[in-house]
Amino acid sequence: MISAAAYIVLTVLIYWTVKRVYRWKKLFVLSPLLIVPVVIICILAFGHISFDTYNEGGRWLTGMIGPATLALAVPLYKNFSMLKKHALEIVTAVAAGSGAGFLTALGIAHLFHLSKPLVAGLLLRSTTTPIAIAVSDRIGGISSVTAVIVLLTGLLGMSVGPVMIRKLHIRSEIAQGVMMGTSAHTAGTYKAFELSGLSGAISTICMILSAFITLLCMPLFVM
């Protein structure tokens, strides 16, 4: 029990430290989503600590993902009038983006003759990690492979998205949110909130819609 509590404290302390550094210098390479997992992996590897031992405490933090996700409802509530006003544009954009992403994944898989586990990971890359892991095994994927692909997609979107927004001079907060949430799920939403509260709220709803549309398309892959 003591070790479990120690790992919880260690994880929170690492995150808090990295978060402080990131607030001081907002560079992608200093992002907590990138640095914290790397630091923890290094500690486990060099300390010869098994993941199961670490997870005695880590699983309690994992269990808080659900309640933490519910907290995203707050900005949705605050920006509900704006969401309602632009509902049609948002749904249309997300449907187009998710559909294009799904077809692109199938095209890449066909072109390079990828194995089914890799294809499953590509198809689920823009959903959230919990959803991707839950669905992956059921469609012939490997949950660990899918999780890595989802993580890399989020990190890539989080790093490239803001650059594209600047280069393309995308000033609409709604467009920014749609772009980040549809393509880069939770990581993109995290970055969207740094752009503005409205962008974050739009990104949140787009992340949910994108996951829903992707799941609706899954029977096409299974067939």
TrEMBL record:
The answer to whether the entry has keyword Transmembrane helix is: yes
Q: How does it sit in the membrane?
A: Multi-pass membrane protein
The membrane spanning regions, by residue number, are 6-22, 29-51, 57-78, 90-112, 142-165, 201-222
Q: What Gene Ontology terms describe where this protein resides (cellular component)? A: membrane
Q: Which compartments is it annotated to reside in?
A: Membrane
User: What domain of life?
Assistant: Bacteria
Q: Which UniProt keywords apply?
A: Membrane, Transmembrane, Transmembrane helix
Q: Which PANTHER family match?
A: MUREIN HYDROLASE EXPORT REGULATOR (PTHR30249:SF3), PUTATIVE SEROTONIN TRANSPORTER (PTHR30249)
Question: What protein does this entry describe?
Answer: LrgB family protein
* Organism of origin: Paenibacillus thalictri
